[in-house]
Write a structure and sequence with these properties.
heterodimer; A: alpha+beta; Alpha-D-Glucose-1,6-Bisphosphate, Chain A, domain 4; 7-stranded antiparallel beta sheet; 27% helix; 30% strand; globular; B: 6-stranded parallel beta sheet
Chain lengths: 196, 396
């Protein structure tokens, strides 16, 4: 999967910020392994070194600690992992994911295998930002469950991936910088309810 | 525990709620000994601040005793601490620059969406001040959970009364930052709109920073008296034309620096203000902003305008032209409380700053709702209400 920032566009802004329709098609066309019809991308700057962030992310079992919808990720082998993700209506969706390309301390790209419930591919980039730390960019392409209807349902439950990605990246930043995920919960019971 | 909870416009109650617990490793639980009602709490009381929910615990000026600590808290049980109203992580880029109220991580991830949509960026979390700033429970309660307790609270040495240090939590650093943002040069004339606590502390701070004259503007006689006590000259805008008076008092130059310590509930029956009020009550909500308009118009050419006053939304008829044509500098923002605490605590210990004059009423927590009503209805005589959970009932 190529970096969406380098795909053809009229200015220097990332493709994920385009006002034009049809950018998802372009991005998908630019992928090595096309996996969906919705494209999202988010960047966040984290006050830590790229290597440290890469290492935390590369151990996929860590992802459930800041990705709200991810119930768990099981590592199968060096390239393969099994994802269990919460879906609207108290259900869950599962798939196997394979690392398609990676460079230590710089990026990880992955794609779901053929039998996935939600077909998806993604890439996470860690770019050195000097004294500011690291710019972390997540790019995801996916097929929403049950097409358009599924996306509307997902929005109702605030499980819509674009919102989720932004919030998950903020939690990743909180965990990496502050050492914990900020919460306004006053009791452990409230915290559990929030995380349910 | 007992806590003051918000239920709607002019409806606050002391309810029984669950005690707070340690939720994150850097947390501490504080047993409140003193907590004040802030002028900005009246914005919540009056229903001007969006994203409030019934049952929210208010209060962002508080101090107390550490009774429980998380694994990564650096506080110890039994320590007395004052807690900043801004919730900052101490580890992000902004905290590194001491811009604590711009902390990236103090506000929970989901709540950041609201400010991101409204302002373009989320700000730090605040105690007891709507869900846009995190939805954190405030300190007008018997106990409070304090996140990031290793970077926020300041430990108070033994033998110093609560009343002397309580205002380190918000209004003293806010008044200080307001004066700092006015970039005062020795001998400057500084005009201050609003002689509430922040205005009064900014008058004290301006003199400490070398101002030659401070001119204080309000309409409450008692508050103007307090301003006079610190050496300020006064203008009562109900009796005097403010712009004309400022110009005459400065030989036609205008104040070198202007501080707007009034904010979005500016009183006064000026035409623009009345229009703002009508719009606010018909949900065309623009902020009521007469004081900032006047500050910009009165300020001398090339001068500085500092705006500690709280604004939340949009304004009409903002004199952008005057700001540009006169080459003014406008500085503002929520207070970076943590930045000022050591210096200001020192100034209190050395008796360079005394804030106890401000406290007009002390009430038990159980009478907190009375405190809100009094503060709201009688702003002249009620300069500051401090709630003390242990206190016996008093006649309000």
């Amino acid at each position: 999967m190529t970096d969406a920032r380098t795909a053809q566009t009229r200015d220097d802004a990332p493709l994920t910020t385009s006002k034009r329709s049809g950018v998802a098609d372009e991005a998908v066309a630019a992928l090595v392994e096309p996996k969906g019809d919705a494209l999202i991308g988010r960047s966040v700057t984290i006050n830590r070194r790229p290597g440290e962030l890469y290492a935390f992310w590369r151990d996929f079992t860590n992802l459930a600690s800041f990705m709200e919808n991810v119930e768990r990720v099981e590592v199968i082998d060096d390239k393969r992992s099994h994802w269990v993700v919460k879906a609207p209506g108290g259900r869950s969706v599962e798939w196997d994911s394979v690392i398609t390309e990676e460079r230590e301390g710089e990026f990880i790209a992955w794609a779901s295998t053929e039998d996935a419930d939600v077909s998806n591919a993604g890439r996470i980039d860690f770019r050195d930002a000097g004294e500011r730390g690291t710019v972390v960019t997540a790019t995801l392409v996916y097929d929403p469950p049950a097409g358009v209807v599924g996306k509307i349902v997902a929005k109702l439950f605030q499980r819509e991936p674009a919102i989720q990605a932004r919030r998950d990246l903020r939690r990743f930043k909180q965990l990496m910088e502050a050492g914990e995920v900020a919460t306004a919960a006053r009791t452990t019971k409230q915290l559990e309810e929030e995380q349910a | 525990m007992r806590a003051l909870t918000w239920h709607g416009k002019h409806d606050v109650r002391v309810d029984t709620v669950d005690d707070p617990e340690i939720v994150n490793p850097r947390d501490a639980i504080i047993k409140i000994t003193s907590t004040a009602i802030c002028g900005s709490d009246l914005h919540l009381y009056d229903g001007y601040i969006p994203t409030m929910q019934a049952g929210d615990i208010l209060g962002h000026e508080f101090m107390g005793e550490v009774v429980e600590t998380g694994a990564k808290s650096t506080l110890r049980k039994g320590q007395r601490v004052v807690v900043p109203f801004t919730i900052a992580c101490g580890a992000c880029y902004h905290c590194g620059k001491q811009q604590y109220s711009a902390c990236d991580n103090g506000n929970p991830a989901d709540n950041q969406d609201i400010a991101q949509e409204m302002y373009g960026h989320p700000m730090s979390g605040l105690f007891g001040y709507s869900h846009m700033t995190g939805g954190y429970a405030g300190g007008q309660a018997e106990y409070v959970r304090v996140p990031f307790s290793d970077v926020g609270p300041i430990v108070i040495p033994d033998g110093i009364d609560d009343d002397k240090v309580l205002f380190l939590s918000d209004i003293l650093p806010t008044g200080w930052q307001a004066a700092e943002n006015a970039e005062i040069e020795p001998g400057d004339t500084v005009a201050v709109w609003g002689c509430g606590p922040v205005g009064l502390f900014s008058i004290q701070s301006a003199f400490l920073m070398g101002a030659g004259r401070v001119i204080a503007i309000d309409h409450f006689p008692h508050r103007l008296e307090l301003a006079k006590r610190f050496g300020a000259e006064t203008i009562n805008y109900e009796e005097t034309k403010t712009y004309e008076a400022l110009m005459e008092m400065t030989g036609g130059i205008g104040p070198d620096a202007c501080i707007d310590a009034v904010g979005l509930e500016a009183h006064g029956f000026f035409v623009d203000n009345v229009i703002d009020q009508i719009k606010a009550s018909t949900f065309l909500a623009t902020d009521r902003t007469h004081s900032i308009r006047q500050a910009i118009i009165a300020c001398r050419k090339g001068g500085r305008v500092s705006m500690p006053a709280v604004y939340g939304g949009f304004v009409d008829k903002f004199p952008l032209g005057a700001l540009m044509e006169k080459g003014l500098t406008l500085k503002t923002g929520q207070t970076h409380v943590q930045r000022y605490l050591p210096g200001l605590l020192n100034a209190i210990v050395e008796e360079k700053i005394d804030t106890t004059f401000l406290i007009s009423h002390r009430l038990p927590l159980e009478q907190a709702a009375d405190g809100y009503r009094m503060f709201h209805d009688k702003q002249d005589e009620v300069t500051k209400v401090v709630l003390k959970p242990g206190l016996d009932r008093v006649a309000a």
